[in-house]
Amino acid sequence: MSRHLHLDLVGGVAGDMLLGLWIELGVPAESLQALSARLGLSEIEVTAERVSRSSLAATHVTVRVRGQRLRGETAKITL
Questions:
Q1: Entry pTM
Q2: How much is the pLDDT for 44?
């Protein structure tokens, strides 16, 4: 039995949403997290977490450069 996934991306697709879809379809999150190291991009960090908003659940994937803050994220300062 073969499997087929058809994506009709007339308006494009967001990369983080596509990565989340792959995880939902069974690709281990660890393999995506290790991908940047295999590509020689050790400064790239990929994290995945299950989220629930309203009545919808999904996998939220974040791709960022280590040491850089996310948009809207504030710095934590300890005195």
A1: 0.67
A2: 84
